[in-house]
């Protein structure tokens, strides 16, 4: 049975998510601008594990009282399908986007879990001039660079995580769909331990598993494409739905993803049918993709 809240239909459906591995790194710099420059660069091209190797995003900004070196910083979450791939992505992204960025340093943001290299291998960029220092049992590397030193904690911890939480916002037009999606992402960003890895946190190219083309593992979610209404056999939209946007959520725990989805649903309901939101749904693959099932009606406020 469907339910309506503020005129918005909530589908009897669930978002299907899957296990991932994740880490948090803290990037600091001389000022907040350069910390964010490094964080944005390090989390670029990290929307989907389908082709990017990882999914990543800025979790939040950090004040000087929240960072190991007392400077402004940014917290970043990086997710991947395996610990091995995650370790590779961390090293590449920190090496190319943080080490290179003026005045930055990088530290582990998670203490418990399997340790993988953070500065352990990047130290060799110092060409023998690098030195290490152990503080309270933690090793840090100091690599000479042209603006001074790049400081990197030797390792960061990898923990179990959950990827693929999602919400589908079906609206009367593009303006309404964007307004709802932006409000949902803003509400989710106020919560810890989650990121929405797509541009602005929103996806317009929701996908289904498989394709008529054998070389593709995923293709357009035609059941939710307004231009295909009446053309596909199993359309999931109604004539009054002219735009669908998806928000994908990765989190450190099942509870974190559920909390973010709940916040997104609440944001959509607050805008309501009067704001152009017709329905809220979720993407799943009949329970075949992953063990984490987030039922929308259980998340209703």
Kindly state the number of beta strands.
Answer: 17
Secondary-structure class: alpha+beta
Terminus-to-terminus distance: 17 Å
Strand content: 35-45%
Fraction in helix: 10-25%
Rg estimate, integer Å = 21 Å
Q: Number of helical segments?
A: 4
- Secondary-structure element sequence? EEEHEEHEEEEEEHEEEEHEE
Mean pLDDT: 96
Q: Describe the sheet with the most strands.
A: 15 strands, mixed
Using the alpha-carbon principal axes, give the shape. Answer: elongated
Flag low-confidence runs. none
Task: Give the tags.
301 residues, alpha+beta, two-stranded antiparallel sheet, 4 helices, 17 strands
Notes on the structure:
This is Formylmethanofuran--tetrahydromethanopterin formyltransferase. InterPro entries: ForMFR_H4MPT_ForTrfase, ForMFR_H4MPT_ForTrfase_C, ForMFR_H4MPT_ForTrfase_fd-like, ForMFR_H4MPT_ForTrfase_N. Its EC number is 2.3.1.101. Pathway: One-carbon metabolism; formaldehyde degradation; formate from formaldehyde (H(4)MPT route): step 4/5. Catalyzes the transfer of a formyl group from 5-formyl tetrahydromethanopterin (5-formyl-H(4)MPT) to methanofuran (MFR) to produce formylmethanofuran (formyl-MFR) and tetrahydromethanopterin (H(4)MPT). The protein is of the alpha+beta class. 20% of the residues lie in helices and 36% in strands. It is built from four helices and 17 strands. It has helices at 32-42, 83-97, 174-189, 254-271, and strands at 3-5, 8-10, 14-28, 55-62, 73-80, 105-108, 114-117, 131-135, 138-145, 148-153, 155-171, 194-195, 207-209, 218-220, 243-251, 277-281, 292-295. The strands form two sheets. It has a 15-stranded mixed beta sheet that branches. It has a two-stranded antiparallel ribbon with strand order 13-14. Helix 1 packs across helix 2 (83-97) and helix 3 crosses helix 4. The mean pLDDT is 96.
């Amino acid at each position: 049975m469907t339910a309506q809240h503020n005129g918005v239909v909530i589908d009897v459906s669930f978002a299907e998510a899957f296990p991932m591995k994740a880490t948090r790194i803290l990037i600091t710099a001389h000022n907040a601008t350069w910390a964010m420059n490094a964080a944005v660069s390090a989390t670029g091209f990290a929307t989907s594990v389908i082709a990017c190797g990882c999914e990543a995003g800025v979790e939040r900004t950090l004040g000087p009282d929240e960072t190991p070196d007392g400077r402004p910083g940014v917290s970043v979450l990086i997710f991947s399908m395996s610990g091995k791939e995650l370790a590779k992505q961390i090293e590449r992204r920190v090496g190319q986007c943080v080490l290179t960025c003026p005045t930055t340093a990088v530290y582990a943001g998670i203490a418990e879990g399997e340790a993988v290299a953070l500065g352990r291998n990047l130290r060799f960029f110092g060409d023998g001039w690098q030195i290490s220092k152990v503080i309270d049992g933690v090793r840090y590397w100091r690599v000479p660079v042209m603006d001074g030193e790049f400081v990197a904690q030797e390792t960061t911890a990898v923990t179990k995580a959950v990827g693929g939480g999602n919400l589908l916002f079906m609206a009367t037009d593009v303006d309404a769909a964007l307004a709802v999606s932006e409000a949902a992402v803003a509400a989710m960003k106020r919560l810890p331990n989650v990121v929405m890895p797509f541009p602005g946190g929103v996806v317009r190219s929701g996908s289904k598993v498989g394709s008529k083309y054998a070389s593709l593992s995923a293709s357009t979610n035609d059941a939710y494409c307004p231009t295909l209404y009446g053309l596909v056999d199993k359309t999931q939209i109604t004539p009054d739905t002219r735009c669908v946007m998806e928000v994908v959520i990765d989190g450190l725990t099942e509870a974190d993803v559920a909390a973010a989805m709940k916040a997104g649903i609440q944001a959509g309901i607050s805008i309501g049918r009067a704001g152009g939101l017709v329905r809220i749904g979720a993407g799943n693959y009949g329970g075949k993709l992953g063990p984490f099932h987030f039922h929308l009606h259980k998340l209703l406020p």
